[in-house]
Amino acid sequence: MDFKNMKFTVGDGCSRGLCRRGCGRQDRQLNTYDWLADVPGNAESTDLVEVQFKNTRKGYYHNVNALDLKKGDVVAVEASPGHDIGVVTLTGKLVKLQVKKANLKSMDDIKRIYRIAKPVDIDKWREAKSREHGTMIQSRQIAKDLNLQMKIGDVEYQGDGNKAIFYYIADERVDFRQLIKVLAETFHVRIEMKQIGARQEAGRIGGTGPCGRELCCATWMKNFVSVSTGAARYQDISLNPQKLAGMCAKLKCCLNYEVDSYIEAGRKLPSREVVLQTMDGDHFLFKTDILAGLVTYSTDKRLAANLVTITAQRALEIVEMNRRGEKPDSLSDSDEPMTENHQVDLLAGESLTRFDKAKKKKKQKSRGNKADNKEAKAANANNQQPANNQQASAENRKQRRAEGKQQRQEDKPQQQRQEGKPQQRQEGKQQQRPDNKPQRDAKPQRPDANGDQQKPQDDRQRQRGPKQQRNGGNGNGGQRRRQGKPNTPQQPKQEKANDGGNQ
């Protein structure tokens, strides 16, 4: 076979059992799959056509001109006043079912389709759509200036630009007659006001729910039923407002989907007030698994003690036995109690951050910490030495103490001898105490009357130096104090007095 010149054909959906005409474009809200699209004669069975406009607004029209319309065609339809532009979303027999769901008041209200939209119509339609966002922002400011308790959620222009629909949300009745006058004068179009609820607003905006799927109100739901917390109680769902509320801040519509099944299954379970009596004692209802038909009983009315799980059928049998005055040996009909089969989660004990790199914390060590670490290391090194080294170090310490005491005793007489001698100034040398301790920093002294600056003296010289100077520096101050003679005044003070007298 010549494969190079062979002509290949791409198979469409109808050849594989799924017609692509049934799906159509999936970029619109409230999309409906036409599962009768490939049935012969389906389009000719009725002249009704479903046309969708902005977001979730849909309308039904008669195809009076017998146009060959398919899903996705842009058409011009009748409106009051003028005409509107929309997209065909459904044709054939399924349109009749959609009309019944829409609850139209009269079939005479259904208008007709003019033609397939021309390029001029599409250009004018796109121009009108480009003004919608700016009109919405400006209309919100106008409503705020008029002190109206309402929120304008969306604005939709008609295809020919002669009319605008304002969708608003309000908790109470609002008198917007003045608002309509101001809007008509501002935008020079015909104004129509439509009140919608929070669920309808969420459907028009669209979004993704906590289940991961697109919102029901944006895909298929048109009629909204009131939802109460009783639906959550029937299904044993925690009454947590954050989990029960949807994107519209109202209770989720999906709470009503399975409530009928739960009510029917709950009728087969024993009442919560019934106490099962056995030879072991009384058992109180602790929890129930409605769909599985299992009930768990506890020996304590308020706490989970000695939990036993049995089937609802076994619980009803024990209730009948108690009514006859009989008590079974235990709740379970077999020796081993029934245990719940839970699915094993392999990652139950794992952390979400187990693959993250641990950050090393830098410790700022101060000088004190470094000194402590050195002492600790030295202590550890000493602890690791044998016992003989410890004894030797203790003897060395004792010997040093004895030598220190002996040195101090030898220095005492020498200090006593030096008390009576005159002090000798040593320039350019740092004096040191007899006990070999460093000298403290001496404070600078004031200059004498002659202008000579005295040198710093140590502590002992500060105590004894002035007395020796008063006695003339002979070292006889002690003898004069014994004889009771007064000390002579210092020579520098006399010179100061003489200078003052001369002046």
Explain what this protein looks like in three dimensions.
With 503 residues, this protein is of the alpha+beta class. It is built from 16 helices and twelve strands. The chain has helices at 20-23, 94-102, 119-130, 132-145, 177-187, 198-205, 216-219, 230-234, 241-244, 259-266, 312-323, 367-384, 387-418, 459-470, 477-483, 491-502, and strands spanning 48-52, 58-62, 74-78, 83-91, 111-116, 151-157, 163-169, 190-195, 276-277, 282-289, 294-298, 308-311. The strands form three sheets. The chain has a five-stranded mixed beta barrel. The longest helix is centred in the C-terminal third of the chain and has 32 residues, at 387-418. The chain is extended, with a radius of gyration of 52 Å. It starts with 19 loop residues before the first helix and ends with a helix.
* Averaged pLDDT: 76
Distance between the termini: 142 Å
**Relative helix content:** 25-40%
Percentage of β-strand residues:
5-15%
Number of discrete helical segments: 16
Number of strands: 12
Radius of gyration: 52 Å
Instruction: List low-confidence stretches.
Output: 10-18, 421-438, 453-463, 465-503
Looking across the biggest beta sheet, what order are the strands in?
A: 1-2-5-3-4
The major β-sheet equals: 5 strands, mixed, barrel
List SSEs in N-to-C order.
HEEEEHEHHEEHEHHHHHEEEEHHHHHH
- What is the general shape? extended
Structural class: alpha+beta
